[in-house]
Design brief:
The complex is a heterodimer of chains A (358) and B (584). With 358 residues, chain A is mostly helical. Chain A folds into two domains: 42-116, no CATH class; 132-357, MetI-like (MetI-like fold, Orthogonal Bundle), CATH 1.10.3720. Chain A is built from 13 helices and five strands. In chain A, the strands form two sheets. Chain A has a three-stranded antiparallel β-sheet, with no helix packed on it. Chain A has a two-stranded antiparallel ribbon with strand order 4-5. Chain A starts with a helix and ends with a helix. Chain B is of the alpha+beta class. Chain B folds into two domains: 50-299 and 559-582, 3-Layer(aba) Sandwich (D-Maltodextrin-Binding Protein, domain 2), CATH 3.40.190.10; 310-552, Dipeptide-binding Protein, Domain 3 (Dipeptide-binding Protein, domain 3), CATH 3.10.105.10. Helix content of chain B is 32%, strand content 22%. Chain B has 16 helices and 26 strands. In chain B, strands 15, 16, 17, 18, 21, 22, 23 and 24 form an eight-stranded mixed β-sheet that branches. In chain B, strands 2-14-12-11 form a four-stranded mixed β-sheet, with helices on one face. In chain B, helix 3 (128-139) runs parallel beside helix 5 (191-199) and helix 6 (265-273) runs parallel beside helix 7. Chain B is globular, with a radius of gyration of 28 Å. The chains are: A mainly alpha (358), B alpha+beta (584). The interface between A and B is large, with 30 and 41 residues.
Chain lengths: 358, 584
C-alpha cells in the first residue's frame, strides 16, 4: 500500500463523514449553550477513575468558573457516559427540519447541553466537531459544484477552440486571457452588496459559487484546448475526417476520450482551489451566511488573534483542510501520470499505426 | 541742601529700580513660570522618556478646525488647548486657558479671564486676539467648521467681544444649559499663523499632515516634531506649556509621544505584547481577553474604564419614504411600525447573554441610548429589560400575530421574516446579529443575518433606506443630553430610524423634539434632568430602535506608566497625557 492508497482511503473516509455529517455529529451544529463558551476539547476516557475498563466510554465535563469568561475548573467535574446510536432532539433554531436526529455517539440524556464536545466549543458554546462536519459538507459541496461547472465550461470552450481553430479559437483564447488577468476575487467581494438583500443564504451561496465557476473555467479551457488541438492532429482523427466523419462524431468518439483523463485531472485540481475560494469568501463575511455553516464562516469567526492564541480548537477547519488538500493533490498527481490504456485507446492506437507508417 | 553726590545716587537708585522693574516685567512675560500657570495638585513625577502609542489610521489633517476622524482628533487635541476643559474624572467644567470665568446677565454672558504669559508652541504670546480670531473661524459660514452648529444657539450665533488683552466676553442669544461645556475641545488657534491663510480663503488646506512642523503652533502639551508618511507621527514636548505639577515643574513630563499607524487591533496587540507599544486605547473585548491572560507575566496593566458613550443597537427601518418606493422593505415595515411588535422583540432579546458572549462581560446591558457614562442624566426608571419570552409572545398575540408550526404569522397571514444587516468588518456586531436571530427564532420569527461591507451598509441605512433592520453602534458626543441631540431631534442627521423628516412624523417624536429643545435652555439642573427623563420614558414606550449594550472603555498600558485616565470623551485615554510619567 503506497501513499496514494492511504490518500484514497482517507478521502473515502472524509466522504462518508461528510455525507453522513448529521449522523456523526454529536450535537446540533446550531444549538448554542451560553454557559459553555470556548470549552476546551474533551477527551474520551475508557477507564474509570479507579482504573477499571468501562463498558461505555465517557467524557469529563469541567465546570464554568462563575464570574469569569470562558474559564473552567476540573473541580466537581461531571462524567458524561457516552452511548452509541442515540436519538437526540434538535433545537428550534436548528437548520435541520426534523425534530429528532439519530447520532452515532452521544449522551442519552434529553438535555442537548450535555452532548460531548470532542473538539470543544466556539464562542457561543456550539459544538466545534459537529460544525466541522456539517460545515465541511457545505464547503465541499460548493467546491464540487463549482469545480464541476468550471470543468464542464472549460471542456466545452476548450474543445470548441481546439476543434474549430481560427476565429473561434482566437475569440475564446482572448476571452480566457481577459478572465485570467482580471482580479476577480476583489470584484466578488463587492458582489454581496449588489445581490438583492432578501436573497436566502442558500441562493446567495449558489449565486456566488456559480460566479466562481464562471470565472474559473478559463484556465482549464486553455489546457484542454491544447489537448484537443493535439488530438485533432492524430492520425486516426485525420483518417476519420477523411472518411467523412462530422465534428460531432469526431468529438464523441475520438477527441473526447482522448481529452477526458486530462479533464478529470483538471477537475481534481480545481476542487481544492474552489474549496479554498469558498473559505476565502466566507472568511471576509461575504460567502455563506448564518445559519448555514461552512468552513469559511467557521474560520471567519476565528480570524482574531484571540482564537489563534487562546482557543486554537476553533480553527479546526484549517487542521481538517490540510490533510484533505494533501490527499486530493496526491490523488491528482497520480491521475496526471499516463493511465493504462483503455480498450478504446488501444483500438485507436492500433488504428493510428498504419497511417503513421505511410 | 544742594548735594550733587546724593542727588546722583538717588538718580542711580531710581534708574536701577526702573531697570529692575523692566527686567522683572520682561521675565514675567517671557516664561510661564512667572505667568499664571495652571498648577496641578498632583505630586511630581519623573521627567523624560517617551511614550509609544498607535493610531488605527493616519490622521487626515492636523487642522483642529476640520479634524473629524478619530486619528486627527486624537493628535490635534494633544497639540492644542481649549479655554475651559471638562474634567474627565468628575465631568465638571474647569479652568484651562481661561483661569477663571464669570457668568452674568442671568447666564447669557460669560466673561473669561485668560492666563497671563501663555505662549504658543512657537513662542508667540497668546492673547485675547487669538481667542477672537478662533471664534471668527468657528463661526464663519464660509469656513463652515463642523463646530459651527454647536455655537449657534436658538438659530443665532454667539457673540465674542474682547474686553482687554486678557479678557473676553461671550454673549449668548439666550441662557444655554451647557454653555460652559461648549468651550471644551474648542482649540484656540494662533492668529499670527492662520489669519493670513484665512484671509486668502485657504484655511481648509492649512495644516495638512505634510505641513512642516515649524509652521504649526498650538497650546497643547505636545507639538509636532516629525511625520513619517505611512509609518508614524512624532510629537515632542512643548517647552512653552502652561501647566505645572505640585512641585512647580513645567509639564509635560514626557519628552516625546510617538504614534505608529497600525491598521488593526491584532497588529496593535502583537506590538504591545512585544513591548513596542506602551499604551493601547479602544481595545475590543477579544483583544483585552488575550492580553489580560499575559498581563502579570509580561508586566502590563489592563484598564477597564467602565461603560463609555458608545451604544450598540438594533435599528428598525421606519423611514417614511419606503412606502411605494421599496415594496419589500415596506412589507416588513408594517410590522416594525407596530409598537407592540417592537416591544415584543425587545423582550425577546437576552441582553445578559449578549454582554457575556459578544463582549466577554466587558459591557453593560442597555435600556436606552443613555449609557451609564452619563450617570447624572440617566433616568432611574429605564432599567434594561430581562428576556421575557412569555411577555413577548403575549404582546404579539394581542397584536394579532399567531404561531403556526413554530413560525410567526401576522394578522394578514403573512409569515414574519426579515433581515438583520451587520457590518462584515465588525466582528462584535455580526455576533450580536447572530444572537438576535437566535432570540427572535424563539418567537417563531425567521430573521436572516446579512453581512455587508460597512460602506454599503451605511449607504442602505442613510441613503436609499433599503433594509429591514441593522445592528449598528453610535457614540454620543458628550455625557450630557446635548451629546445625543442629532439622534433625538426628528430633523437630526442621526435620527436613523426615520431620516430626512421635515416635520415630526409621529406625535411622540414631536414631543421628544419639544423636550429636547426645551432642555437646552433650562439652566435649572433638576428641571432639565426631569425633562430629559421624559425623553427617555418616551423612548422606552416607543422603542424606535432596540438599545442593546454599551461596551466598556478598554485599554492596556505598560507597567510603570502613571497617570492614564480612561475617559468617554476624546481623546479616550490620552486626555491627561501632560501628566503621564514613567515610574522608573
Amino acid at each position: 500500500m503506497n501513499l496514494k492508497h492511504v490518500a484514497t482511503i482517507f478521502l473515502a473516509l472524509c466522504a462518508v463523514l461528510l455525507v453522513a455529517a448529521d449522523f456523526f455529529a454529536t450535537a446540533d451544529p446550531g444549538a448554542m449553550n451560553p454557559s459553555l463558551p470556548y470549552l476546551p476539547p474533551e477527551t474520551l476516557h475508557f477507564r474509570s477513575a479507579s482504573g477499571r475498563l468501562q463498558l461505555h466510554p465517557y467524557v469529563v465535563r469541567s465546570r464554568p468558573v462563575p464570574g469569569h469568561f470562558a474559564a473552567y475548573s476540573a473541580q466537581d467535574a461531571a462524567t458524561l457516559p457516552l452511548q452509541f446510536f442515540v436519538w437526540t432532539t434538535q433545537s428550534p433554531d436548528s437548520p435541520s427540519s426534523s425534530a429528532q436526529q439519530l447520532r452515532f455517539c452521544g449522551v442519552s440524556s434529553a438535555h442537548a447541553a450535555d452532548s460531548p464536545h470532542f473538539l470543544g466549543t466556539d464562542q457561543y458554546g456550539r459544538d466545534v466537531w459537529s460544525r466541522l462536519l456539517v460545515g465541511g459538507r457545505t464547503t465541499v459541496a460548493i467546491g464540487i459544484f463549482a469545480a464541476l461547472c468550471a470543468g464542464l465550461l472549460g471542456l466545452a470552450f476548450g474543445l470548441l477552440a481546439g476543434l474549430f481553430g481560427g476565429l473561434v479559437d482566437a475569440l475564446i483564447m482572448r476571452t480566457t486571457e481577459t478572465m485570467i488577468s482580471v482580479p476577480w476575487f476583489y470584484l466578488l467581494l463587492a458582489l454581496r452588496a449588489l445581490l438583492p438583500l432578501r436573497t436566502s443564504p442558500l441562493v446567495a451561496v449558489v449565486i456566488s459559487t456559480g460566479l466562481l465557476a464562471l470565472i474559473g473555467w478559463a484556465r482549464p479551457a486553455r489546457i484542454l484546448r491544447g489537448a484537443a488541438l493535439e488530438a485533432r492532429q492524430r492520425g486516426y482523427v485525420t483518417m476519420a475526417r477523411a472518411t467523412g466523419a462530422n465534428s460531432g462524431h469526431l468529438v464523441r468518439w475520438h477527441i473526447l476520450p482522448d481529452v477526458a483523463p486530462l479533464a478529470v485531472t483538471q477537475f481534481t485540481i480545481l476542487l481544492p482551489q474552489f474549496i479554498a475560494s469558498e473559505v476565502a469568501l466566507s472568511y471576509f463575511g461575504l460567502g455563506v451566511d448564518e445559519p448555514l455553516v461552512s468552513w469559511g464562516n467557521l474560520i471567519a469567526a476565528a480570524q482574531h488573534l484571540s482564537s489563534l492564541v487562546e482557543y486554537p480548537w476553533v480553527i479546526a477547519p484549517i487542521w481538517a483542510m490540510l490533510p484533505l488538500f494533501f490527499a486530493l493533490h496526491l490523488v491528482t498527481d497520480h491521475r496526471e501520470r499516463p493511465a493504462p490504456l483503455t480498450k478504446f485507446a488501444q483500438r485507436r492506437q492500433n488504428d493510428s499505426f498504419p497511417l503513421e507508417r505511410v | 541742601m544742594n548735594d550733587p553726590a546724593g542727588c546722583r545716587l538717588s538718580h542711580l537708585i531710581a534708574a536701577a529700580r526702573l531697570w529692575l522693574i523692566l527686567i522683572t516685567v520682561f521675565a514675567y512675560s517671557l516664561h510661564p513660570v512667572f505667568g499664571q500657570v495652571l498648577r496641578l495638585e498632583t505630586t511630581s513625577g519623573n521627567t523624560g522618556g517617551k511614550l509609544n502609542c498607535s493610531l488605527r489610521a493616519e490622521p487626515k489633517t492636523l487642522n483642529p478646525v476640520f479634524a473629524m476622524d478619530v486619528s486627527s482628533r486624537t493628535v490635534t487635541s494633544i497639540m492644542h488647548a481649549d479655554l475651559l476643559h471638562i474634567n474627565r474624572k468628575t465631568d465638571v467644567v474647569e479652568p484651562s486657558l481661561a483661569r477663571s470665568w464669570e457668568v452674568t446677565r442671568g447666564g447669557q454672558s460669560y466673561t473669561l479671564h485668560l492666563r497671563r504669559g501663555v505662549r504658543f508652541s512657537d513662542g508667540t504670546p497668546f492673547t485675547a486676539d487669538d481667542v477672537l480670531f478662533s471664534f471668527q473661524v468657528y463661526l464663519d459660514p464660509e469656513v463652515n467648521a463642523p463646530q459651527r452648529d454647536l455655537l449657534i444657539i436658538d438659530g443665532k450665533p454667539l457673540q465674542v467681544v474682547k474686553v482687554d488683552s486678557l479678557t473676553i466676553r461671550v454673549d449668548l442669544p439666550r441662557p444655554y444649559a451647557a454653555a460652559a461645556r461648549l468651550f471644551d475641545g474648542l482649540a484656540m488657534l494662533p492668529s499670527h499663523l492662520l489669519e493670513p491663510v484665512k484671509r486668502s480663503g485657504k484655511l481648509q488646506d492649512a495644516w495638512s499632515i505634510a505641513t512642516p512642523a515649524a509652521q504649526i503652533a498650538g497650546l497643547g502639551p505636545f507639538r509636532l516634531k516629525n511625520y513619517l508618511p505611512g509609518q508614524a507621527m512624532i510629537l515632542e514636548r512643548n517647552p512653552y506649556f502652561w501647566k505645572q505639577d505640585g512641585a512647580q515643574r513645567t509639564l509635560p513630563y514626557l519628552d516625546e509621544l510617538d504614534f505608529a499607524f497600525l491598521a488593526n487591533q491584532d497588529a496593535e496587540s502583537i506590538r504591545f505584547a512585544a513591548g513596542q507599544l506602551d499604551l493601547l486605547a479602544r481595545l475590543s473585548a477579544d483583544s483585552y481577553g488575550v492580553l489580560d491572560k499575559d498581563a502579570g507575566q509580561k508586566h502590563f496593566q489592563m484598564i477597564d474604564g467602565g461603560p463609555g458613550l458608545e451604544f450598540d443597537f438594533l435599528l428598525f427601518n421606519l423611514n417614511s419614504d419606503v412606502a411605494g418606493r421599496l415594496p419589500e422593505a415596506a412589507a416588513t415595515q408594517k410590522w416594525f411600525q407596530q409598537t407592540a411588535f417592537r416591544q415584543a422583540l425587545s423582550f425577546a432579546v437576552n441582553r445578559d447573554v449578549l454582554v457575556n458572549l459578544a463582549f466577554q462581560n466587558h459591557a453593560v446591558p442597555l435600556a436606552s441610548p443613555v449609557t451609564p457614562a452619563s450617570q447624572a442624566w440617566l433616568s432611574p426608571q429605564t432599567r434594561p429589560e430581562k428576556q421575557d419570552l412569555s411577555r413577548a409572545r403575549k404582546l404579539l398575540a394581542d397584536a394579532g400575530f399567531q404561531i403556526r408550526d413554530g413560525s410567526l404569522f401576522d394578522s394578514a397571514g403573512k409569515q414574519v421574516k426579515f433581515t438583520i444587516l451587520a457590518a462584515s468588518s465588525n466582528r462584535q456586531r455580526s455576533e450580536i446579529a447572530s444572537m438576535l436571530r437566535r432570540d427572535f427564532a424563539e418567537l417563531g420569527i425567521d430573521a436572516q443575518v446579512v453581512s455587508l461591507e460597512f460602506r454599503s451598509l451605511l449607504q442602505r441605512v442613510t441613503q436609499n433606506h433599503d433594509y429591514d433592520t441593522a445592528v449598528m453602534g453610535l457614540s454620543a458626543g458628550d455625557t450630557e443630553p446635548n451629546g445625543n441631540l442629532s439622534l433625538w431631534l426628528s430633523d437630526g442627521n442621526l435620527h436613523l430610524w426615520n431620516l430626512g423628516q421635515k416635520k415630526p412624523a409621529t406625535p411622540w417624536e414631536s414631543e421628544i423634539d419639544d423636550a429636547m429643545h426645551r432642555q437646552m435652555f433650562l439652566t435649572n439642573v433638576p428641571v432639565r434632568r426631569k425633562t430629559y427623563a421624559r425623553v427617555q420614558e418616551i423612548y422606552r414606550e416607543q422603542l424606535p430602535f432596540l438599545s442593546l449594550a454599551s461596551p466598556n472603555m478598554l485599554g492596556a498600558a505598560r507597567a510603570g506608566l502613571i497617570g492614564v485616565l480612561p475617559s468617554p470623551l476624546d481623546p479616550a485615554m490620552l486626555d491627561n497625557v501632560a501628566a503621564f510619567y514613567w515610574k522608573n
